User: Fold these one by one.
Assistant:
Number 1:
Amino acid sequence: MPNLRLADLTAEIEANVRRALLEDVGSGDITAQLIPAERLAKATIITREDCTISGTAWVDAVFRQLDPRVAVHWQVSDGQRATANQPLFHLEGPARSLLTGERTALNFLQMLSAVATRAQYFADKVADTQVKLLDTRKTLPGLRLAQKYAVTCGGCHNHRIGLYDAFLIKENHIAACGGIALAISAAHRIAPGKPVEIEVESLAELKEALDAGADIVMLDELSLDDMREAVRLNAGRAKLEASGGINDSTLRVIAETGVDYISIGAMTKDVKAVDLSMRLSL
């Protein structure tokens, strides 16, 4: 599946930010009203830890929607690595608006940069192999496209976006359809042209999936020896994806089996927000 591009997300970003500002600002920031409306200020946002940046467009949208008078000056861009204590961007404008938008802007940037940083960590581990690392649907509700975009900023790739753009036939689907071949045949009939991926748990099931014309076969928790044999048996007929039990200690050896893809849910679901700080000057 193709990776998300920032140009495709304009409407999504505006909607994400609109909801986030409504959630945080509501009927108005009463604390910011303590500051005279005419007072101007500057602010610098730094990262307190090394990270890979993602989310600049969401920050821009926060201040654009909140107060177009705020100027945002970036010192980094999406996909760039930043080091601890490095300035990321500067703000200039009404003090009230800088303070009102601070938390929403930093929430987006710290979360999306955390995803990008985690993805970069995994990508670096297999940088000299041919494998592509894929995300999953284990994302925050309402922020899937944002998180999947962040994955690409870290050098990894997007799996299907949702339940509508590709088939992923798992054990329960297979059982309900009456078998692997019947499930794949039905998928091709229901939505011709959509990628058909099916999960297998043995080499015998792999052979059945290949004979039935699967586009991608997910090898679910197969042993390393079985993955190597799967690559040999496949001989390029379909793409092979390893899934399940992927962690720091197994990622590299799985990549070296020769599979095409490895999917990692931890890229989006097991992240810790990057520590950011805003320093205001009047």
Number 2:
Amino acid sequence: MPCLRVSLPAAAVLAAAAVSIPAGPSHAAEALRVPPPVAGAVLEPVSLAALPGWREDDGAASLDAFRRTCAGPGPNPPQIEGVTGSPADLAAACAAAAEVRPNEAKKFFEARFSAYRIVRPASGTEPERRVGFLTGYFEPELTGSLEPGPGYTAPVLARPDDLVSLAPGETVPGLDPLYRAGRRTETGLVPYPERAAIEDGALGERTRPLLWLRDAVDLFVLQVQGSGRVRLPDGRGMRVLYDGKNGQPYTSIGKLLVNEGHLPINGLSLERWTAWLRANPDHARRLMRMNASYIFFRTEPVTDPALGPPGAAGVPLSPGRSMAVDGNLWRYGLPFWLEGKLPGQPGRGHLVVAADTGSAIVGPARGDLYVGTGAAAGRAAGDLHDRMGFVVLIPKPAPDGAAKDAAAPEAAAGEARP
């Protein structure tokens, strides 16, 4: 899972800096506005001010997350063409946000965005659904060492020099579209080795260990989440960040444990399945190797302990305010209103910002909320598996002269959650 990835280059935001903020449309105009098409969804216009919980939510926190996403370099490579959310309109909203006072955050979102409830239409025997599904993810905090030794046996590998990652939607002749990366050879790209082969040394000198974690289970957790913080023996902390994967398909360890009857699906938390793996090392090795996907990393210092790692949008994640979305449908930087009660959160709704993605985050009404760092955040993320209503905020058309369409974002950081 990510932790893992505004989508708008800073230049686009600066280009829009002189744009004035138009007054919001009348209620009659709001009712007549035509929603943009989104694959697999019908968008129903709604009034932000009328949404239950809108007035009570912390608008200043959402504004801060939105501004931070605006200021980022954008993902690399860009998102595919056709994702919902005009880069020019979003750049103009970003420029306007720079001058907004925290106590005026709600008015800003009401004036600069049109809100649409995401509804999945009826299909076959499946009825119309007005809710989606929300999960949570976090940044694990692990112990490690820059040198191998007793208690530090699992190498965290750097990106290999022969790994070629494919951009969203990109295909390569001769390489099955199932694979999202390949190995560079003299005759072209071939599938990259699976997890088991990598663990058995298939990469040779193509990669190197960045550091060592205490065991293979900690490494697996790091790869599932896509990033993490590591505490070294001398007390220093460092961040370990996603830097590519082998492109092989991901298999959920949780599903394997449930399907083989080792653990029940009810109460299948991170703490529970990691404890089971450590208590059953022979089964653990076999099950983890059934997940062919393998993630590589890079390191950097922790500059702001209050923020998470960079998401797919290229900016640090804001706990409780950054959400992973389907990056093939939604542009990073779009705000979303979550219609429902979140565990441990007051109120009946929550305004968040699309800033990341993940391989299991698929569909228009699917989100993964970044919860924070450490064990408590891990427990909170594990408890977040709820049906949830989604309202997307689409920026209103930018005035003439606003920022032109900018190259947009990339996908992603980590794996899918178990």
Number 3:
Amino acid sequence: MLAKIEQLLQEVKGLTAQNPEELEALRIKYLSKKGAINALMADFRNVPAEQKKEVGMKLNELKNLAQERIAALKETFENQDNSAAELDLTRTAYPIKLGTRHPLTIVRNEIIDIFGRIGFTIADGPEVEDDWHVFSSMNFPEDHPARDMQDTFFIETHPDIILRTHTSSVQSRVMEVSQPPIRVICPGRVYRNEAISYRAHCFFHQVEGLYVDKNVSFTDLKQVLLQFAQEMFGPDTKIRLRPSYFPFTEPSAEMDISCDICGGEGCPFCKYTGWVEILGCGMVDPAVLEANGIDSKVYTGYAFGMGVERITNLKYKVKDLRMFSENDTRFLEEFESAN
């Protein structure tokens, strides 16, 4: 019997199991009522009296070792199960990298900050708009191309519900419920049915501004835009205003800044003109004031609008506008130092 006990001791010392099922099979083999150790216990009565003490001690050693070894293996499997239960397979793979602000957000916030220090407050409005606030209140003729389904995303017709093509709709909503003085900027996303390329997209971001009060002049507009340009692009920046046309302003102008790459000397970026266009502006058309409930005989105003992507391109020399919406982390990481 001592030989059998010694053999089982060596077996028990080397017990291993790959899974809980194998462990249960080992428990049954050694510790169950019909297991090997209980069989030895049953034969213990046949052991000669002079050997009972020695055999009894060996049997107890074997039983205790088997119980301890199986308990240890069971604890190992339980710990593995707990770890698996705590693992969330839907989580982002480790290590989790901290992000940074998007370049468009950086520039938009900078624009808002500059005009905020001049006295403009932020106004917001819906992206899904009606025809009145996007076109009619802004003095767009009935046959204007922007009202065509080929140029604008229509949600419904009769009445026309569209994705706003500019944040001028927010200006209209502000004028409807406010009386001058009004001094607001309207940042937001806008949509146009454009072919997507390196220089155009079907959605982009604008910041438009509106100032309405008594005795507002074009000189006021020019000075505000000069201050904005010099704060955004540097104190040596110059501006020029070229006559243009917009349905909602009269007179209207496009504003250029001196190229900040060549200092106005001429380079490929500015097409050797020394100037780069950044925004449109003008005095608010009296018809727009009247349509939105403001007496144009008492009040005047100016408005301006710029694309955030355009300003970001100029500031950070991004060559492809599509990169702003592709969420390529390699591109976005280039702006960590700008945060």
Number 4:
Amino acid sequence: MRKELIGLDHLMISTPDLPAIRACYLRLGFSVTPWRTNEPMGGGKTGGRGGNHLVLFRPTDDRMTNFLEFAYADPAHAVPYMRDLLGRRPALAMIVHAATDLRSLDEGWQAAGFPPCLYYELDTDYHDPDDGTVDRIHFRVLVPDAPRGPLAFNACEVMDRSHYLRPGWIAHENGAEYWAAATVVSDDLAAMRRHFGAIYGIQPVPEGPVSVTMGDQTLTAVDAAGFAAGWGDAARRADGSLAELAVEVRVASADTARAVLTRNAVSFRDEGSRLIVPAAEAGGIVLVLAEAA
């Protein structure tokens, strides 16, 4: 494992409709941050509506954050890379790694065959449109500027985590604590195996699903048939297409999560300590609410 990589920090998930995804996750019992603009996604000064909503959790490592980022690129205003990355059905658009020594990490990735990353630092204030609170956002990131394989990735070093640790944002009615696992669909597992090897400096298992675990988070790639077999009817989106992402979120109590879903008339598969919310109910991805063992 590359020594600069601390963990799997957060998941950037493409979405075609920000207001709809916020309403969806509020209904599932999550706290969801207000809409924020993002200029590369075609928001802010571009005059477009590109941006994101975050579902923030308690980090499992004090050097990281832990959240789901639901992101939308306004086609008329976004930069080409973000438009291509996010201009599709709900899926894992990018895995964002927590890291240190970003310059050395970039050198390691280049030695593995990747093109150089752009280095970007953001240090700005965020003005909450809901309550007027002003937070500082400060991070450094290695930013890819072109496709780099079957799964987009970058690395981030958060210099000030306070924005991501607001008590009102990391507390959830359904008892969610942190995201623990993500499973993505790959149409070429051999290519994904090579990709994981280059990103993480590891030798993945030669057959079957491709997986990496860092701390309390696991990322796994499977083929479409395996995904469909594993999730059954829950794998179908509202339009009947096969979902491409499943995310498991740890909850303090399955009973608490079950009560919220039931009260809000959310359909789900009850497996006792695991509640499976189908893609048709979870914004196009399979959502698992799992009680910690």
